[in-house]
Amino acid sequence: MKMIEAVIFDMDGVLTETSKQHYLAWKQLAEDLGFEITDKINEDLKGISRLESLDIVLRAGNMVDKFTDCEKNQLADRKNLIYQSLIKEFTKENLSVGALELLIALKNSNIKIALASVSKNAQFLLEAMEIRDYFDVVVDPSEVKNGKPAPDIFLMAAQKLGVEPRNCVGIEDAYAGVEAIKSAGMKPIGIGNKEILNNCDIVYKNLGEINTNFIISM
Ligand code: B16
Ligand code: MG
């Protein structure tokens, strides 16, 4: 029987806790537009692309039809500038608990590693947190047609790695991300809250709880 050959990671909420900074940036943008968002919206934004997230935020302020596509792009750029100012001093200290140890253990077990983040800031974070060299493949989200929950980004990662999807494990913090992993025919591991990630059988609080031998035998 073939065992797991590759692990495909999500970035935000898995390798680092940037969902907080994404939320704070959206909150700031909403305030600039004259409305409030609460952290209840946070789960809906996880794993969702920048422009799709903007629509979710604008809907919360009943403003979704108030802007042209060009204006929406400008608003998304504004949010991104706020987000980038919040992550500009990130270092390896901002890696999630157990992230570095898991990457090292996977490398030592000859498991391939890829990144399947829809964030256009993921490359910056890989470099800033000094983990780029662990990744055999980093998918460029601008090459991917359909965002999560579509399987596209995970399938592209597997294809670039040269590994069959059924021999891949995907690790995600977002409900939409777990759906993407499952639709890709891969095995999902959730990071976060079991009640929120109720579409995933295996959910850990953080990467530090994951045993590499368990992954290999999945
Ligand atoms: P950016 P992931 C996702 O990253 C975030 O979860 C989501 O909140 C964000 O809107 C999206 O990236 C796009 O990010 O605006 O930086 O391109 O979870 O797929 O690593
Ligand atoms: Mg995520």
Descriptors for this entry?
218 residues; Rossmann fold; 9 helices; binds magnesium ion; six-stranded parallel beta sheet
What does it look like?
The chain has 9 helices and 6 strands; from the N terminus they run βαααααβαβαβαββα. With 218 residues, the protein is α/β, with parallel strands linked by helices. It folds into 2 domains: 133 residues, Rossmann fold (3-Layer(aba) Sandwich), CATH 3.40.50.1000; 69 residues, Orthogonal Bundle (DNA polymerase, domain 1), CATH 1.10.150. A 6-stranded parallel β-sheet has the order 3-2-1-4-5-6, sandwiched between helices. The structure holds 1,6-di-O-phosphono-beta-D-glucopyranose (B16) and magnesium ion. The site of 1,6-di-O-phosphono-beta-D-glucopyranose has 21 residues, from α1 and α3. Magnesium ion binds next to loops.
Oligomer: single chain
Strand order of the largest sheet: 3-2-1-4-5-6
Look at the structure and give the mean pLDDT: 96
Task: List the uncertain runs.
Answer: none
What class, by secondary structure content?
A: alpha/beta
CATH-scheme architecture of the largest domain = 3-Layer(aba) Sandwich
Q: Note the main sheet.
A: 6 strands, parallel
Helix content bin:
40-55%
Q: What's the CATH first level of the largest domain?
A: Alpha Beta
Number of domains: 2
Strand content: 5-15%
Count of alpha/pi helices: 9
Count every beta strand, where a strand is a DSSP E run of 2 or more residues. Answer: 6
In the CATH scheme, what's the topology name of the largest domain?
Rossmann fold
- For the record, give the distance between the C-alpha atoms at the N and C termini, rounded to a whole number: 11 Å
User: Secondary-structure element sequence?
Assistant: EHHHHHEHEHEHEEH
The rough form would be described as globular
* Ligands bound to this protein structure: 1,6-di-O-phosphono-beta-D-glucopyranose, magnesium ion
CATH superfamily of the largest domain: HAD superfamily/HAD-like
